[in-house]
Structure prediction request, 390 residues.
Amino acid sequence: MTVARERLLDAAVEAFAEHGFTATTTRDIASRAGMSPAAVYVHHATKEELLFTLSLNGHHAALNVIEQAGTDAPDAVAEVRQLVYAFSLWHAQNSRVGRIVQYEFRSLTSEHRAQIASIRRQIEAHMQDALKRGVAQGVLDVPNIADTARALLSLSIDLVRWFDPHGSQPPDQIAALHADLAARMTAARRHPDRF
Amino acid sequence: MTVARERLLDAAVEAFAEHGFTATTTRDIASRAGMSPAAVYVHHATKEELLFTLSLNGHHAALNVIEQAGTDAPDAVAEVRQLVYAFSLWHAQNSRVGRIVQYEFRSLTSEHRAQIASIRRQIEAHMQDALKRGVAQGVLDVPNIADTARALLSLSIDLVRWFDPHGSQPPDQIAALHADLAARMTAARRHPDRF
DNA sequence: GTCTATACGTGGATAGAC
DNA sequence: GTCTATCCACGTATAGAC
Prediction:
């Protein structure tokens, strides 16, 4: 509720994305938020708890994006396309948070890691379910559901490693390309013959 | 040549892969190599120089792998398949080094970063060239060469984020899947590869 | 080349005034 | 809730003996 608490979270996103969690000092975070080093601890118990808050928010947002996408798709091919489009778009539009979410996982305490891991499993399960539906419908050809789901998510996630938010490439363009590639990777070459 | 120097490099791979560069202490590296903290500095000037050596070796190895692959491919579809197979196989078999290579880039000095970046451009160019040849031959359908090349590399690179070297999944199995997906992503419709 | 000992800076977190 | 001042642990790197 306090404005200061959110200013500190924003400052932490900047700092963690720029230098990484371990290399970021609480003094740097405080300074970016225009506060003294001590003020950090009024609003957040530890530096790790700050990271956990960001990571939890980020994972919830990503899960929400993938759960909302594809609900009005006419068939499973369109659904896969929409899931990958939405997931890639989110990672391109939130590449700083995405980098923290993906790369600072091991800096969390084991309890916090376990909580985050559960959200990750929900994201993977959602993609797997879409593939399974498509295979059952006969419109997708996916020999290996689990690994292919992971490969589709990899495309989006790896965005945060190289995507430049200040660059000229529009997020929706790369999302559209990924959606096309996803459709080609999974679509059956033709619909099964009907007797 | 000295054995100690290589023992320290091996120890650094372990430590950096496990905790990340910043969170790794020189004491930890020395301890894993069975030496005193001071001994590190007999063989390596700084901790960053240790990272640079590992990163340079790793990038050279990855570049070499992709340059050797696909040389005897009968056509561009097979070449793309072989490039992705080899690149994914290497990342699965060297996931610890791969993690350092991919995630500790920003911990390098700007001079060292520039050297590494040049090798990365060569890797990207190699994949792009294969796609261009295939399009020219008419066996590949790739509307966006640069972004598609990056997507193909993403599949392999993102392996290091989740691949478990102690898990049960064989490296060649995930490499084969990635090769299949790469072929489906890029092959022209009228020249289907096996899938 | 390896050790023990240590200098020296830095960083997470706290104390206590306002 | 914010500040200044500070504690204290830790980490990189070096000194100097063997």
Q: What stands out?
A: Chain B has a mean pLDDT of 95.
